[in-house]
Specification:
By secondary structure, the chain is mainly α. It has a domain of 121 residues. It contains 3 helices and no strands. 0% of the residues are buried.
């Protein structure tokens, strides 16, 4: 039975009971002292480890607190971001409308300016206008040069007396009472 002998720790001599009890008591005291020493060593290690564990617990709690603050700040930032996005969309829409209105006004002004330029164009600036005026004059059949008019005799001449007198405004300066 080699296995049993391997686990046999304490040998008791049944013939010497008193000696065996003393031996077992001494061995128990020795083991108890070793256990107390190990317990004392464990307490010393615990005193070294305890602040580290307290710091770990504090850091974990602080990390949780900061994480929760971050999460709530992130939620608030997401809300603000979504509101800003809506406002930016509105701003972009308004800006596009204003740009379209400005472009329409510029187009209208350019068209008006061009029509005014076209209306004020004289025959010496526009070949087409000059030829159309020449054609019109040739179609009428009568062309008078030199400032004489055919209907000059039909209109009565106005006399100098009939002319309305222009009103003179006073130009003197002075104190008025």
């Amino acid at each position: 039975m080699p296995v049993v002998e391997e686990f046999q720790i304490i040998e008791i001599d049944l013939g010497d009971m008193e000696g065996s009890i003393q031996l077992l008591k001494a061995e128990a005291d020795s083991q108890h002292k070793a256990m107390l020493d190990a317990n004392k060593e464990a307490d010393e290690i615990w005193e070294e480890v305890k602040p580290m564990l307290e710091e770990r617990d504090f850091l974990r709690a602080e990390g949780d607190r900061l994480h929760n603050a971050f999460v709530s700040s992130r939620e608030a930032a997401d809300k603000v971001h979504s509101e800003i996005k809506i406002l930016l969309d509105q701003v972009n829409e308004i800006r596009d409308d204003l740009k379209a209105q400005r472009e329409e006004r510029e187009r209208l002004i350019k068209e008006h300016n061009q029509s005014v330029r076209d209306a004020l164009r004289t025959p010496d600036e526009d070949e087409e206008l000059a030829s159309s005026l020449a054609d019109e004059l040739l179609e009428k059949g009568s062309l008078t040069l030199g400032g004489t008019r055919a209907d000059a005799d039909s209109k009565p001449q106005s006399s100098k007396r009939e002319r309305k007198r222009s009103r003179r405004l006073g130009t003197t300066r002075g104190k008025r009472d």
